[in-house]
From TrEMBL:
<dbReference type="GO" id="GO:0006207">
    <property type="term" value="P:'de novo' pyrimidine nucleobase biosynthetic process"/>
</dbReference>
<comment type="subunit">
    <text>Monomer.</text>
</comment>
<dbReference type="InterPro" id="IPR000850">
    <property type="entry name" value="Adenylat/UMP-CMP_kin"/>
</dbReference>
<keyword id="KW-0963">Cytoplasm</keyword>
<dbReference type="InterPro" id="IPR033690">
    <property type="entry name" value="Adenylat_kinase_CS"/>
</dbReference>
<keyword id="KW-0808">Transferase</keyword>
<feature type="binding site">
    <location>
        <begin position="78"/>
        <end position="80"/>
    </location>
    <ligand>
        <name>a ribonucleoside 5'-phosphate</name>
    </ligand>
</feature>
<keyword id="KW-0539">Nucleus</keyword>
<dbReference type="GO" id="GO:0006221">
    <property type="term" value="P:pyrimidine nucleotide biosynthetic process"/>
</dbReference>
<dbReference type="InterPro" id="IPR006266">
    <property type="entry name" value="UMP_CMP_kinase"/>
</dbReference>
<feature type="binding site">
    <location>
        <begin position="31"/>
        <end position="36"/>
    </location>
    <ligand>
        <name>ATP</name>
    </ligand>
</feature>
<feature type="binding site">
    <location>
        <position position="144"/>
    </location>
    <ligand>
        <name>ATP</name>
    </ligand>
</feature>
<dbReference type="GO" id="GO:0036430">
    <property type="term" value="F:CMP kinase activity"/>
</dbReference>
<comment type="function">
    <text>Catalyzes the phosphorylation of pyrimidine nucleoside monophosphates at the expense of ATP. Plays an important role in de novo pyrimidine nucleotide biosynthesis. Has preference for UMP and CMP as phosphate acceptors.</text>
</comment>
<keyword id="KW-0547">Nucleotide-binding</keyword>
<feature type="binding site">
    <location>
        <position position="159"/>
    </location>
    <ligand>
        <name>a ribonucleoside 5'-phosphate</name>
    </ligand>
</feature>
<dbReference type="Pfam" id="PF00406">
    <property type="entry name" value="ADK"/>
</dbReference>
């Protein structure tokens, strides 16, 4: 994977890895509701939402030299080379000023996953996986109405195939590391979000409330450490 990783590494300014941001990968088939649920999570929990697909579509619109290549890949439901997508993600993370990210629709294949880890040295805190049947995802995509060039039945079928062959193995990889939180995404939006909240809220408390103190004390005894830091006026 040498050259992809090396060139992306050279472009990284180092500050991102030093910040050790919290990253949650949001995965699931096309149309399962990743973007919809991420918008809710942002509102409730203060994450920055980065959709790899949205970043790629913005890159096409910006008239970048990669624009035509990206457009052709999206039209065919293919996965854009990791070098391109990772650079866009890195730039967006650095510019956001936040330290908590929902990375939606990435990693989409093994190459995406390995290159991101290698370049950024970031491992996800956990992976939200939205599970939904193809027929339901197809219905949702065909009525999405956002004028997307890939929301037609021919491209949708190709995207489903890529999801099964290339993206599900990434979910299985993280599952083997105990990082996957699977959610039944076939239910109404509000019900799905109740399940999302039950997963994200406890993790968020860890990140927000005790991160600083714990890193100083290297202790898991949150209450005692927290009380002590209050007592000492920190
Ligand atoms: P993804 O980002 O995973 O491709 P979106 O969030 O864009 O999916 O959702 C695809 C379409 O389905 C959108 O039109 C959205 O409004 C709709 N949608 C999302 N979640 C649900 C749900 N739980 N039930 C019904 N429709 C949904
Ligand atoms: O996630 P979303 O449905 O917006 O992705 C749309 C398309 O963008 C994908 O079908 C694929 O062509 C491209 N994409 C990619 N690599 C990613 C995410 C999206 O090539 N990691
Ligand atoms: Mg989306």
């Amino acid at each position: 994977m040498g050259s992809i990783v090396e060139s992306a590494k050279q472009d990284a300014n180092g500050s991102l890895a030093e910040k050790k941001p919290t990253v949650v990968f949001v995965l699931g088939g096309p149309g399962c509701g990743k973007g919809t649920q991420c918008a809710n999570i942002v509102e409730h929990f203060g994450y920055t939402h980065l959709s790899a697909g949205d970043l790629l579509r913005a890159e096409i619109k910006s008239g970048s030299e990669n624009g035509t290549m990206i457009q052709n890949m999206i039209k065919e439901g293919k996965i854009v080379p990791s070098e391109v997508t990772i650079k866009l993600l890195q730039k967006a993370m650095e510019e956001s000023g936040n330290d908590k990210f929902l990375i939606d629709g990435f990693p989409r294949n093994e190459e995406n996953r390995a290159a991101f880890e290698e370049v950024t040295k970031i491992e996800p805190a956990f992976v939200l996986f939205f599970d939904c049947a193809e027929e339901e995802m197809e219905r949702r995509l065909l009525s999405r109405n956002q004028g997307r060039e890939d929301d037609n039945i021919e491209t949708i079928r190709k995207r489903f195939k890529v999801f099964l062959e290339s993206s599900l193995p990434v979910v299985e990889y993280y599952d083997s590391k105990g990082k996957v939180r699977k959610i039944d995404a076939a239910r109404p939006i509000g019900e799905v979000f109740e399940s999302v909240k039950a997963i994200v809220a406890p993790q968020n408390e860890k990140v927000k409330g005790y991160g600083r103190v714990l890193s100083l004390e290297e202790s898991e005894d949150c209450d005692i450490v927290h009380l002590r830091s209050m007592f000492e006026g920190k």
